[in-house]
Amino acid sequence: MAPIASTAAALCFLLLLAATVSNAALANSSSNSSSHSNAAAASCPDQPVNLAALSSSSSAPPTTCRVLIVGGGAAGMFSAYTLRELGSGVCVVERKTVWGGKLQSLSAGNSTDTDSPDNAGIGTAGLWIHGEQTDVRCLANQLNVTLEESHDDTLINARGQWTRGGAEGLLTTQNGSYTAPAFNLTDMDGDTDDLQDRMWEFLLGMKATNPLTGATPSPHPAKSCASYRSMGHYINTTLGLEAYAFLIADMPEPGNLQFPVDVCAWIQSEIDERTIRSKITTQFIAHGGWHGIIERAGAVAAAAGVRFFLDSPIACISSIAGNATAASALHVTAADGTTSNRNSSYQFVATGPGGVSGRVFIAEHLIFASGPLDVRKLGGNVGRRLAAAPEAASIRPVEVAVYDAFYPQRFWEDYMVHRYGNMPVRTDANCLVFSEFPGHTYFRVKNATRPVYATDLRCIAFWRQLHAASGMPGIRNYVQSSLQGLFPLQEVPAPYLDTFVVHADGWHLMDYGASQRNVSIASIYSWAASPLGDHANLCLAGEAYYGISYGWTAGAWRTAAHCIKQRFAGVLSGAALAAVEYVSSGCNGRARFPNEIVLPRNASMPGLNPATGKVLPTVE
């Protein structure tokens, strides 16, 4: 693939994206797409739309597109990038006034070069690309986005005690080392492997013996997965409250155990994820965050002529009545280089909250690149069909609170083991829940951190209430006080730049009851590629339809690629389709890419216990 073209279109797009996050607090985030509200959907036509009537009912001529992409987040931008050979025939519409959806970045410098450490853009949602996601690494390489390799050096604080590497150090086992144990659990199955791993393997049905009792129940508790409303309910019932407290203390996303979810699907997803995690030996941080990748993809698409429309909510998606007759009656020259009165292939009408009286897009193909929260709000005869699908009702969005901050000094460095590693801190002492202190060369210049990443239900409510009552000063003061409690031997300064956001749909899980509706992870993935059947030019793309939460934004690429391979085989050239396959293959299975920086691992740091100032051993 060619590097980013140095054109006016690309430059304009980059300038728009550079202004997407201010230095003030971010407002509460919803979803990426252009969808609006249920009230707006009520004004949508319930029947197919006759194009001939649009000229008299709409305030302006409709915008015509060969492909309309609804949603300017990761999936929408990846779709536009992949379809760029269609040029101005591709339209991308976004409800918000910024691109990127929830994948924004907070930058500390004045540089517009996301690759510069003076920029140090840290993401306000997902941060990492996992090593096994070679397709995304291949895509980042094509887009000239620099990736820095990273290894985690995890600290866990639970019940007032610290351990490094894993929660096993907080257990009292038959050879326990704590006189005042953080957790009172004893393994009884005679196995010497990590007790935490054995507990999960039993819960997932991968092992028959309960490691805490030595019993081998029949039938296995996992066989009754459909009877539990959440993973927490399942764990409490199967292993007990103390085991649940221990397992959740080690989870960066504890909300995953608290929400009502389809436990059968969760178990299957976790088994799949364990297989993926076993292949991960490293992870990468993108310079400029995920937003930097989206920015580059959008710039390449813009340089190819793809049209972008901000502040363009879509509330209604309808089919077209009598394509050939209606199209010939609509004498409007299309902006995509075709003449609409010769085009009998239009299938979809997409409008805003005002229905056909407002802005109207008509398209041959449509990619709805946003999540189920937006699907459920859609009106129009096509939108209502999507909204009523059991698959759309079977996906649960997960809320996450995120606080990013830049500090005048690196008060956390004495507690790291590797200078260039990433130090995650998981704690039950406050609602920080999961903090990250990156040591990458890109972040070190500006001391970029993520002190808060919380999905815990109680903490989500706390952060919302605190922000509503005290705004950013209240958020900032609470975080500073909480960090001081975790690092009592240091003076924790106030940040010089910070931002806070609550994402309504940070990622997605299978909702409770999905299995009873015969909906599975695999069926959602297939449904998204052809939700109206094989003969309709419509598909959905986004992380929500990938099903495995460990995919994160990689799921946006994979569903977009799946959609395009399924629905655009007769539209794109063979070379363009081969390019999609090339990225999906990880650039033909490459292990390393030219844009990746491998940081040294021999740069040792003190690795102290934050509470005592003494060396804290790593749990193997």
UniProtKB/TrEMBL annotation:
GO terms for molecular function: oxidoreductase activity. Gene3D superfamilies: FAD/NAD(P)-binding domain. It comes from the Eukaryota. The keyword Acetylation does not apply. Residues 67-104 form the FAD-dependent oxidoreductase 2 FAD-binding domain. Keywords: Flavoprotein, Oxidoreductase, Signal. It comes from Tetradesmus obliquus. This is FAD-dependent oxidoreductase 2 FAD-binding domain-containing protein. Residues 1-24 form the signal peptide.
